[in-house]
Amino acid sequence: MDSIKIVWVCNKMPTKVSKLRDKQADNFGGWIDWTCEELSNREDIHLCVLFPDITEYEGGDDSFSYYSFHESDCMDRFEFIIEKEHPDVIHMWGTEFGHSNETMKVCQKLGLADRCIISIQGLVSLYGKRHYIEGVPDKVVRRYTLRDFLKRSNIQKGREQFIQRGRYEIEALKRTKHIIGRTDWDRAASQMFNPEARYHFCNESLRDSFYENRWDLNRIERYSIFVSQCSYPIKGFHYVLEALPEILKRHPDAHVYTTGKDLLSLSMKGKLLITSYQKYLLELIDKYDLRGHVSFLGNLSETEMCKQYLKANVFVSASTIENSPNSVGEAMIVGCPVVSSDVGGVKNLLEHNTEGFVYQSSAPYMLAYYVNRVFEDDDLAIQFSENARNHASKTHNREVNMETLLNIYKEVVDCPIPVCGGGTRYLPECIFGISVYTTVGAICNSSAGKIENTTIEIADQNNYDDLLCA
């Protein structure tokens, strides 16, 4: 592939940028961080990343550049950046926030819609409408804690926000011509929202630590369960708490570890400043007498997360919906036995009864049953560990995933370029080695009249010059 310029639009500041600006890196979106590092180190790629922040700034060098933007007012910023950078490909990582749709609007205005790619991460349109409040009592969904009242947001408002953001998400998906996904679930959603878009398959790569370590049954904490998130209802931690009493009947030493604020050590003021969902988790803990069997570990770094997978007897993903949860992939590639709710694209990651267990998300009694089976059968745990590692090493093969992504970029760049419809059209440098702007009207309009529905493929600069002079 000849040298090309790629613009990314991300939901977070990549770790590469946070290091350059001496800021603390986010502990999510690890698939973006590794891919960013790899692409920015290639001589045939200039990577430019855009991400939300509270102030606008920019930086970079000849091989890598970055820009921040305000989430609430970004269209003018996007237009300025895209016209300045002259990208060959515009790649949006996710549709969960409105800036993806704003990017698509700008690209349509500039005649670059056919150069846009959207990677599906999750889909808030479906999450909000179908899955957000599964298993949470209606009174909990609609009530307000003091924190909720001050923030004007409770569980129901959170769901409504997902649905509202989902409207922009669907708009963005309908505008694009290229979608990247990796599961049956996101392929089905792509076909539902935009059957005309080209679907490209590409798996995601994980963070370094998970490739470098391996789970060992002899080094675990017996009867320990690790759950990677519990912050809001979609992660299904309420189901874990409902399953735990059944697990404790057979294994009274069982203990659940999860991330996030320690709800069991709150001050009086702290108790006033928790969300309705956090309050519900505390109510379940007290209802089932689970204090002493649940620990909240705070915000964990990549290395700390890896240590929890290695320490756990079993990893549980109890989400009410996911696409391809990276937490499941991380557990699998280190070899920690997995029990996961059968939601979204999980079946594309994990084969039931061979590489782990999957169960109906709304059946915590089945979650308890499968966790107990792992606890009680070391041979089964070791079999799951080995089989899961083998599968995950293919799903998350970095070299294969990078080659696949580069081939997708090449396919998008090599598409014929529509030249009618007026406006300004950017013709990417990879076609003939230089960057050129041309006014479409100058090509489409002639003494014979306007030519409709025409495309051109330019082999070299001389042919392009001949076309302009015709």
Please specify the SSE layout and strand pairing.
Blueprint: E1 4-9, H1 15-20, H2 30-40, E2 45-52, E3 58-60, E4 64-69, H3 75-85, E5 89-93, H4 99-109, E6 116-119, H5 124-131, H6 138-142, H7 146-151, H8 155-175, E7 178-181, H9 184-193, E8 198-201, H10 208-212, E9 224-227, H11 237-250, E10 255-258, H12 268-272, H13 276-287, E11 294-296, H14 302-311, E12 314-317, H15 326-334, E13 338-341, H16 346-349, E14 357-359, H17 364-376, H18 378-395, H19 398-413, E15 417-418, E16 424-427, H20 429-432, E17 436-439, H21 440-444, E18 445-446, E19 449-450, E20 455-456, H22 461-469
Parallel strand pairs: 1-2, 1-5, 2-4, 5-6, 6-7, 7-8, 9-10, 9-12, 10-11, 12-13, 13-14
Antiparallel strand pairs: 3-4, 15-20, 16-17, 18-19
Helix pairs in contact: 3-4, 4-8, 5-8, 11-13, 11-17, 15-18
Task: Describe the model.
By secondary structure, this protein is of the alpha/beta class. The protein contains 22 helices and 20 strands. α3 packs across α4 (99-109), α11 (237-250) packs across α17 (364-376) and α15 packs across α18 (378-395). Helix content is 45%, strand content 17%. It has an 8-stranded mixed beta sheet with strand order 3-4-2-1-5-6-7-8, with helices on both faces. The protein has 3 domains: 4-201, Glycogen Phosphorylase B (Rossmann fold); 210-396, Rossmann fold, CATH 3.40.50; 417-469, no CATH class. α4 (99-109) links the parallel β5 and β6.
